[in-house]
Amino acid sequence: MGEEPRFYREIPAPKGRDLIDYIKNLGQSASQPATEKARPVTPPANQDTGVSPGAGRRSPAQGLSVSKFEELFSYRRPVLLEELERKKQKEAEKRQGEILAAQATAMEMAPVVAETITESFQEDMSPTRLLTDDELLALTSAWEELEGWDAETADGEESEETVVQTELEEKPLQPLEISKEAGASWQEPQSVLPPLEFLTLPPTEQTANDDDEEILQNAALLEQTLSHFGIKAQVTDFSRGPTITRYELQPAPGVKVSRIVGLADDLALSLAAADIRIEAPIPGKSAVGIEVPNRQARPVYFRQVLEDPQVSKHPSPLAVALGQDIAGETVVADLARMPHLLIAGSTGSGKSVCMNTLIASVLFRAQPWQVKFLMIDPKMVELSVYNGIPHLLAPVVTDPKQATAALKWVVTEMENRYSLFAASGVRNLESYNQLLVSRQEQPLPLIVVLIDELADLMLVASKEVEEYICRLAQMARAAGIHLVIATQRPSVDVITGIIKANIPSRIAFAVSSQVDSRTILDMAGAEKLLGRGDMLFFPLGQPKPRRVQGAFVSDREIERLVNFWRQQGVPDYLVGFGSEDNNNEGKNLEEEDELLPEAIRLVIQYGQASASLLQRRFRIGYTRAARLIDIMEQMGVVGSYGGSKPREVLMTMEEFEQWLGNA
Description:
The chain is an alpha/beta fold. It has 4 domains: 6-175, no CATH class; 211-293, 2-Layer Sandwich (Threonyl-tRNA Synthetase, Chain A, domain 2), CATH 3.30.980.40; 302-566, P-loop containing nucleotide triphosphate hydrolases (Rossmann fold), CATH 3.40.50; 589-662, Orthogonal Bundle (Arc Repressor Mutant, subunit A), CATH 1.10.10. It has 24 helices and 15 strands. It has helices at 6-10, 16-31, 66-107, 111-123, 127-130, 134-147, 149-170, 209-228, 257-261, 264-271, 302-306, 309-312, 351-363, 400-424, 429-438, 454-475, 497-502, 514-521, 555-566, 589-592, 596-606, 611-618, 622-635, 653-662, and strands at 233-240, 244-251, 277-279, 288-293, 319-325, 330-334, 341-344, 371-376, 446-451, 481-487, 505-508, 534-538, 546-550, 608-609, 647-648. The strands form 3 sheets. The protein has a 9-stranded mixed β-sheet. The chain has a 4-stranded antiparallel β-sheet with strand order 1-2-4-3. It has a two-stranded antiparallel ribbon with strand order 14-15. A hairpin with a 4-residue loop joins strand 5 and strand 6 (330-334). Helix 14 (400-424) runs parallel beside helix 16 and helix 22 (611-618) packs across helix 23 (622-635). The longest helix has 42 residues, at 66-107. The termini are far apart. The model is unreliable at 1-11, 33-69, 112-118, 120-132, 142-185 and 579-591 (pLDDT under 50).
């Protein structure tokens, strides 16, 4: 470096704020005796452009002779560079730790919150935010003017920022699994999914010694009872579930299975059991299954099955957590694969709770734009609790005549979707939605039609209802429309042969007779069920039904879930339909409603028409709002119903004012 400058031997090297003040004083003292010697510093690299590198930037070197300033920096430059790099490294490590902590927090939150946190930290990653110390800013600016450091280091800082941004892009915050299929290019605002904390935690399981004793005792009684009837068999294994234990019986060579099946009542007597069910043989095993109720039944909590990886990691938004089988394994059913479901059982068997678990499973997993419900509840008490959630296409239909019109609308929607598929050259809803996402357009939602009591609809209009259900069951799967039909009267006049032939997946709860069991499942067995959620699940493609203990969800838990979705916003009902005899009084609807002019003015101002818009602004019921929409359609103010899209407004404000003046 050469000989050390004299003034550095005479005074100690200043640091921090003292260094800045020293540079300023030195510059002033150097410029006072000979200001004409001071010359602007212009790096050679920018001479051709005529642009001063220090323009618009504060510099402590103003008025300081270049020779003394270079001499000062020749001695202090290594120390300054080391302090600068150490400062930048320390701040960068601190910021990186904050980013990692934010990522870990955001991973546990909803996608929209995670994305917001990530964007805010990415904005704070600019290098100028890291260099907040006045000392470093002043010294860096002076060095840039003297050495031409601006171009090189600025490029370096940009590259560091690019590296940080690239790392963040390569490791984005992962949203919930259910949101990936919607596509990243579609800018639909996502709602926060409800947390599982709304559900009751299952109590801590305690291993009871009585369970092992009960199993050994029952196994010995089974072998002893069969030996009394001259049948040699041995219990080789067992599977213990929440309410049922299945004993696997290995008969001796030459023993007919039918002999064991015929002793069902005698085995129940020896075991002191309410009823037993014999599965002969067990599918996939060379054994006979004897299902015996447990002395102490253990309830299956809904949260317990939702937290199971089979449910939480399932890719389908229509995955339904049914409960646990006799081996204690979680049973998951995908409505998209069924593709339609028939649920039947007597009063008090658990049918309504199963419907609630089915709906709640979807509400815990799917956004409103992914899945839409159309609920038909002639009993008016089972599904009306879900009114107001954004997943509904329309308020819960309770009038049987309106239910017929609702099913007719679903058939029309199915036909419209197939027309869209044909025009786009695709075969199903999944392919069509992928095409829409590639165009950054809103995809069509899946539609689940829930009918809580089919018997009441069949009493009002059996021919029309049966026709619509059969058409949907035959064709609606590829259009993304799925049926879930429940009834507590599993008779042949309700579950007709045509309906049963087109709905392959079925759930049977406890029924009173073997005839009802055969009506539902085409086989006996449901009459042996215990009730209170005990079911036989017979999905499409399985050779025999599977015994499942249904998960229990309370009314309080459903209320919390519904209130959560209601707080997300007012539902925008896309469907407006009524019964076939809306004009029951034979009067002109236009003359009856005084809100019609204001309703027309409102839809023209907003540029779209929907019943929910009228409900919110005028605080009226859905029926009146839907009637206003129908009147405006008859008058030509709005267009006809176009599926999931809002109605188009055809009248301008000038035409409305002219119509209002003529009226």
